[in-house]
Amino acid sequence: MAQLLPYPPKPKTKPATKQAWLAAELLELAARGAPKEGDTEHAFPGLRFLRVSRPSTYRKWHAFGPMLIVVAQGRKVSTFRGLNLSYDPSRFFVVTGAAEFEGKVIEATREKPFLAFCYAISPDIVAKTLLALAGETPESPEEDVPAFVGAMDTAMLDCAVRWLRALEDPVERRVVAPLVVEELVFRLLRSDAAAAIRSAVGQERDTDKVQLAMQFLRANVERPLSVEDVARHVAMSSSHFAHRFRAVARVSPMRYLKQLRLEHARTLMVGEGLRVSEAAVRVGYESTSHFTRDFRRLFGASPGEYARRFREG
Protein backbone atom coordinates (compact mmCIF):
# COMPACT_ATOMS: atom_id res chain seq x y z
CA MET A 1 0.00 0.00 0.00
CA ALA A 2 1.35 3.40 -0.99
CA GLN A 3 2.34 5.62 1.92
CA LEU A 4 0.34 8.78 2.51
CA LEU A 5 2.03 12.09 1.88
CA PRO A 6 2.31 13.77 5.31
CA TYR A 7 2.75 17.29 3.96
CA PRO A 8 1.38 19.26 1.02
CA PRO A 9 3.94 20.43 -1.53
CA LYS A 10 5.53 23.78 -0.78
CA PRO A 11 4.29 26.60 -3.04
CA LYS A 12 6.83 27.49 -5.74
CA THR A 13 6.29 31.20 -5.19
CA LYS A 14 5.46 33.22 -2.10
CA PRO A 15 1.70 33.91 -1.80
CA ALA A 16 0.80 37.44 -2.87
CA THR A 17 -1.53 38.35 0.02
CA LYS A 18 -1.59 37.82 3.76
CA GLN A 19 -4.71 35.66 3.46
CA ALA A 20 -3.06 33.46 0.84
CA TRP A 21 0.05 33.15 3.01
CA LEU A 22 -2.07 32.18 6.03
CA ALA A 23 -4.04 29.67 3.95
CA ALA A 24 -0.78 28.01 2.87
CA GLU A 25 0.38 27.78 6.49
CA LEU A 26 -2.99 26.41 7.62
CA LEU A 27 -2.67 23.71 4.97
CA GLU A 28 0.76 22.71 6.23
CA LEU A 29 -0.37 22.66 9.87
CA ALA A 30 -3.49 20.63 9.05
CA ALA A 31 -1.41 18.12 7.07
CA ARG A 32 0.89 17.66 10.06
CA GLY A 33 -2.12 17.26 12.35
CA ALA A 34 -3.64 14.59 10.08
CA PRO A 35 -0.74 12.32 9.03
CA LYS A 36 -3.01 9.32 8.38
CA GLU A 37 -6.28 8.63 6.65
CA GLY A 38 -9.42 9.39 8.66
CA ASP A 39 -9.68 11.09 12.06
CA THR A 40 -6.66 11.92 14.21
CA GLU A 41 -7.48 12.89 17.79
CA HIS A 42 -5.32 15.65 19.28
CA ALA A 43 -4.22 15.93 22.90
CA PHE A 44 -5.96 19.33 23.12
CA PRO A 45 -9.50 18.57 24.39
CA GLY A 46 -12.18 18.65 21.71
CA LEU A 47 -9.82 18.88 18.72
CA ARG A 48 -9.41 16.38 15.92
CA PHE A 49 -7.94 16.51 12.42
CA LEU A 50 -9.33 14.86 9.31
CA ARG A 51 -7.66 13.55 6.15
CA VAL A 52 -9.71 11.97 3.34
CA SER A 53 -8.04 10.98 0.06
CA ARG A 54 -11.11 10.29 -2.08
CA PRO A 55 -14.74 11.44 -2.33
CA SER A 56 -16.61 9.77 0.52
CA THR A 57 -19.97 9.76 2.30
CA TYR A 58 -20.09 9.58 6.09
CA ARG A 59 -22.83 8.04 8.13
CA LYS A 60 -24.94 10.30 10.30
CA TRP A 61 -23.42 11.10 13.66
CA HIS A 62 -24.12 13.26 16.67
CA ALA A 63 -22.33 16.46 17.67
CA PHE A 64 -22.71 17.63 21.26
CA GLY A 65 -22.72 21.38 21.68
CA PRO A 66 -21.26 23.89 19.21
CA MET A 67 -18.65 22.51 16.83
CA LEU A 68 -16.39 24.41 14.43
CA ILE A 69 -14.95 22.89 11.25
CA VAL A 70 -12.22 24.67 9.30
CA VAL A 71 -11.16 23.25 5.94
CA ALA A 72 -7.57 23.64 4.74
CA GLN A 73 -8.01 21.80 1.43
CA GLY A 74 -10.89 20.23 -0.51
CA ARG A 75 -14.65 20.61 -0.18
CA LYS A 76 -17.38 18.96 1.86
CA VAL A 77 -21.19 19.11 1.96
CA SER A 78 -23.24 18.37 5.09
CA THR A 79 -26.99 17.79 5.13
CA PHE A 80 -29.21 18.90 8.03
CA ARG A 81 -32.98 18.45 7.87
CA GLY A 82 -32.82 18.49 4.08
CA LEU A 83 -30.57 21.58 3.99
CA ASN A 84 -27.26 21.18 2.13
CA LEU A 85 -24.34 23.29 3.36
CA SER A 86 -21.11 23.40 1.36
CA TYR A 87 -17.80 24.48 2.91
CA ASP A 88 -14.19 24.71 1.77
CA PRO A 89 -11.11 26.83 2.65
CA SER A 90 -13.10 30.02 2.03
CA ARG A 91 -15.92 29.12 4.45
CA PHE A 92 -15.91 27.81 8.02
CA PHE A 93 -18.73 25.56 9.21
CA VAL A 94 -20.45 25.53 12.61
CA VAL A 95 -22.90 23.06 14.12
CA THR A 96 -24.83 25.03 16.72
CA GLY A 97 -25.90 22.17 18.98
CA ALA A 98 -26.76 18.49 19.20
CA ALA A 99 -27.79 17.42 15.70
CA GLU A 100 -27.70 14.45 13.38
CA PHE A 101 -26.29 15.03 9.90
CA GLU A 102 -24.66 13.37 6.94
CA GLY A 103 -21.40 14.55 5.40
CA LYS A 104 -19.97 14.08 1.92
CA VAL A 105 -16.41 14.89 0.93
CA ILE A 106 -16.77 16.20 -2.62
CA GLU A 107 -13.21 17.20 -3.56
CA ALA A 108 -10.33 14.93 -2.50
CA THR A 109 -7.51 12.95 -4.12
CA ARG A 110 -4.42 11.22 -2.78
CA GLU A 111 -2.26 14.05 -4.10
CA LYS A 112 -4.62 16.74 -2.74
CA PRO A 113 -6.58 15.16 0.13
CA PHE A 114 -9.40 16.81 2.00
CA LEU A 115 -7.77 18.28 5.13
CA ALA A 116 -9.63 19.94 7.98
CA PHE A 117 -9.83 20.29 11.74
CA CYS A 118 -12.93 19.95 13.92
CA TYR A 119 -13.17 21.58 17.33
CA ALA A 120 -15.94 20.91 19.84
CA ILE A 121 -16.30 24.32 21.49
CA SER A 122 -16.49 24.15 25.27
CA PRO A 123 -19.71 25.71 26.62
CA ASP A 124 -17.56 27.35 29.33
CA ILE A 125 -15.88 29.49 26.68
CA VAL A 126 -19.20 30.32 25.01
CA ALA A 127 -20.68 31.46 28.32
CA LYS A 128 -17.61 33.54 29.21
CA THR A 129 -17.59 35.24 25.81
CA LEU A 130 -21.30 35.95 25.92
CA LEU A 131 -20.78 37.73 29.24
CA ALA A 132 -18.08 39.87 27.63
CA LEU A 133 -20.45 40.67 24.75
CA ALA A 134 -23.44 41.48 26.97
CA GLY A 135 -25.47 44.31 25.50
CA GLU A 136 -24.93 43.42 21.88
CA THR A 137 -28.14 42.22 20.27
CA PRO A 138 -27.63 40.59 16.87
CA GLU A 139 -30.72 39.98 14.79
CA SER A 140 -32.20 36.59 15.63
CA PRO A 141 -33.19 34.08 12.95
CA GLU A 142 -36.88 33.21 12.75
CA GLU A 143 -36.24 29.60 13.75
CA ASP A 144 -33.55 27.44 15.30
CA VAL A 145 -30.66 26.95 12.88
CA PRO A 146 -28.81 23.63 13.41
CA ALA A 147 -25.75 24.67 11.38
CA PHE A 148 -24.39 27.45 9.19
CA VAL A 149 -21.39 28.52 7.13
CA GLY A 150 -19.51 31.81 7.38
CA ALA A 151 -16.77 33.56 5.44
CA MET A 152 -13.25 32.60 6.48
CA ASP A 153 -11.86 36.13 6.57
CA THR A 154 -8.26 37.11 7.34
CA ALA A 155 -8.91 37.63 11.06
CA MET A 156 -10.49 34.18 11.50
CA LEU A 157 -7.79 32.53 9.40
CA ASP A 158 -5.01 34.25 11.34
CA CYS A 159 -6.57 33.12 14.61
CA ALA A 160 -6.85 29.50 13.42
CA VAL A 161 -3.23 29.46 12.26
CA ARG A 162 -1.92 30.95 15.52
CA TRP A 163 -3.88 28.35 17.47
CA LEU A 164 -2.60 25.35 15.51
CA ARG A 165 0.91 26.76 15.63
CA ALA A 166 0.71 27.11 19.43
CA LEU A 167 -0.41 23.50 19.76
CA GLU A 168 2.89 22.27 18.36
CA ASP A 169 4.86 23.56 21.36
CA PRO A 170 4.13 21.95 24.77
CA VAL A 171 4.45 25.21 26.72
CA GLU A 172 2.44 27.26 24.22
CA ARG A 173 -0.19 24.50 24.11
CA ARG A 174 -0.69 24.93 27.84
CA VAL A 175 -0.47 28.75 28.07
CA VAL A 176 -1.12 30.35 24.69
CA ALA A 177 -3.52 27.93 22.96
CA PRO A 178 -6.42 28.39 25.45
CA LEU A 179 -6.18 32.18 24.99
CA VAL A 180 -6.30 31.89 21.21
CA VAL A 181 -9.32 29.57 21.48
CA GLU A 182 -11.14 32.29 23.42
CA GLU A 183 -10.32 34.74 20.63
CA LEU A 184 -11.57 32.25 18.04
CA VAL A 185 -14.90 31.89 19.85
CA PHE A 186 -15.08 35.68 20.30
CA ARG A 187 -14.76 36.15 16.53
CA LEU A 188 -17.39 33.50 15.86
CA LEU A 189 -19.83 35.16 18.24
CA ARG A 190 -19.31 38.54 16.59
CA SER A 191 -19.79 37.29 13.04
CA ASP A 192 -23.11 37.75 11.25
CA ALA A 193 -23.57 34.01 10.85
CA ALA A 194 -23.09 33.44 14.59
CA ALA A 195 -26.40 35.17 15.35
CA ALA A 196 -27.78 31.64 15.05
CA ILE A 197 -25.83 30.65 18.19
CA ARG A 198 -26.32 33.86 20.11
CA SER A 199 -30.07 34.07 19.48
CA ALA A 200 -30.56 31.08 21.76
CA VAL A 201 -29.64 33.17 24.79
CA GLY A 202 -31.69 36.26 23.96
CA GLN A 203 -30.37 39.13 26.13
CA GLU A 204 -27.86 36.78 27.77
CA ARG A 205 -29.81 36.77 31.03
CA ASP A 206 -28.61 34.20 33.57
CA THR A 207 -25.41 33.60 31.59
CA ASP A 208 -23.35 34.44 34.68
CA LYS A 209 -25.20 31.79 36.68
CA VAL A 210 -24.79 29.24 33.91
CA GLN A 211 -21.05 29.90 33.85
CA LEU A 212 -20.94 29.51 37.64
CA ALA A 213 -22.79 26.20 37.27
CA MET A 214 -20.23 25.02 34.71
CA GLN A 215 -17.40 25.86 37.08
CA PHE A 216 -19.19 23.97 39.87
CA LEU A 217 -19.67 20.92 37.63
CA ARG A 218 -16.03 20.95 36.56
CA ALA A 219 -14.80 21.26 40.15
CA ASN A 220 -17.02 18.38 41.30
CA VAL A 221 -16.75 16.08 38.32
CA GLU A 222 -16.14 13.00 40.50
CA ARG A 223 -19.14 13.65 42.77
CA PRO A 224 -22.65 12.27 42.13
CA LEU A 225 -24.69 15.32 41.10
CA SER A 226 -28.24 15.97 39.91
CA VAL A 227 -29.80 18.93 38.10
CA GLU A 228 -31.39 19.87 41.43
CA ASP A 229 -27.99 19.95 43.16
CA VAL A 230 -26.48 22.29 40.60
CA ALA A 231 -29.58 24.50 40.38
CA ARG A 232 -29.54 24.89 44.15
CA HIS A 233 -25.88 25.91 44.04
CA VAL A 234 -26.65 28.82 41.69
CA ALA A 235 -29.94 29.72 43.42
CA MET A 236 -32.27 28.86 40.53
CA SER A 237 -35.27 26.58 40.21
CA SER A 238 -34.45 23.25 38.55
CA SER A 239 -36.68 23.78 35.52
CA HIS A 240 -35.51 27.35 34.86
CA PHE A 241 -31.88 26.36 35.35
CA ALA A 242 -32.11 23.42 32.93
CA HIS A 243 -33.77 25.65 30.32
CA ARG A 244 -31.23 28.48 30.60
CA PHE A 245 -28.26 26.10 30.75
CA ARG A 246 -29.30 24.44 27.51
CA ALA A 247 -29.89 27.84 25.88
CA VAL A 248 -26.33 28.96 26.64
CA ALA A 249 -24.44 25.67 26.34
CA ARG A 250 -26.59 24.16 23.57
CA VAL A 251 -26.57 20.94 25.58
CA SER A 252 -28.35 19.77 28.74
CA PRO A 253 -26.61 20.01 32.15
CA MET A 254 -26.37 16.24 32.52
CA ARG A 255 -25.00 15.73 29.02
CA TYR A 256 -22.44 18.44 29.73
CA LEU A 257 -21.51 16.69 32.98
CA LYS A 258 -21.17 13.38 31.12
CA GLN A 259 -18.73 14.96 28.69
CA LEU A 260 -16.73 16.47 31.56
CA ARG A 261 -16.55 13.06 33.21
CA LEU A 262 -15.37 11.34 30.04
CA GLU A 263 -12.72 14.01 29.49
CA HIS A 264 -11.62 13.64 33.13
CA ALA A 265 -11.46 9.87 32.70
CA ARG A 266 -9.24 10.36 29.66
CA THR A 267 -6.86 12.46 31.79
CA LEU A 268 -6.85 9.84 34.55
CA MET A 269 -5.95 7.05 32.12
CA VAL A 270 -3.43 8.89 29.95
CA GLY A 271 -1.89 11.18 32.55
CA GLU A 272 -2.11 9.11 35.74
CA GLY A 273 -2.09 5.59 34.32
CA LEU A 274 -5.39 4.40 35.81
CA ARG A 275 -6.94 1.24 34.38
CA VAL A 276 -10.21 1.53 32.46
CA SER A 277 -12.28 0.08 35.31
CA GLU A 278 -10.62 2.40 37.84
CA ALA A 279 -11.25 5.51 35.72
CA ALA A 280 -14.87 4.47 35.18
CA VAL A 281 -15.50 4.21 38.92
CA ARG A 282 -13.73 7.53 39.65
CA VAL A 283 -16.03 9.43 37.29
CA GLY A 284 -19.21 7.80 38.55
CA TYR A 285 -19.92 4.88 36.21
CA GLU A 286 -21.27 1.73 37.82
CA SER A 287 -20.82 -0.27 34.60
CA THR A 288 -17.47 -0.45 32.79
CA SER A 289 -19.23 -1.53 29.59
CA HIS A 290 -21.50 1.54 29.76
CA PHE A 291 -18.44 3.73 30.32
CA THR A 292 -16.65 2.11 27.36
CA ARG A 293 -19.65 2.68 25.09
CA ASP A 294 -19.94 6.37 26.02
CA PHE A 295 -16.17 6.88 25.74
CA ARG A 296 -16.04 5.32 22.27
CA ARG A 297 -18.91 7.49 21.12
CA LEU A 298 -17.15 10.68 22.21
CA PHE A 299 -13.53 9.86 21.33
CA GLY A 300 -13.90 7.34 18.50
CA ALA A 301 -11.95 4.56 20.26
CA SER A 302 -12.32 2.33 23.30
CA PRO A 303 -10.75 3.68 26.54
CA GLY A 304 -7.99 1.08 26.46
CA GLU A 305 -7.11 1.72 22.80
CA TYR A 306 -7.17 5.46 23.34
CA ALA A 307 -4.90 5.37 26.40
CA ARG A 308 -2.39 3.06 24.68
CA ARG A 309 -2.26 5.29 21.61
CA PHE A 310 -1.31 8.41 23.60
CA ARG A 311 1.07 6.62 25.96
CA GLU A 312 2.95 5.13 22.99
CA GLY A 313 2.86 8.47 21.12
From TrEMBL:
Keywords: DNA-binding, Transcription, Transcription regulation. It comes from the Bacteria. SMART domains: HTH_ARAC. Residues 211-309 form the HTH araC/xylS-type domain. This is AraC family transcriptional regulator. It comes from Pendulispora brunnea. The lineage of its organism: Bacteria, Pseudomonadati, Myxococcota, Myxococcia, Myxococcales.
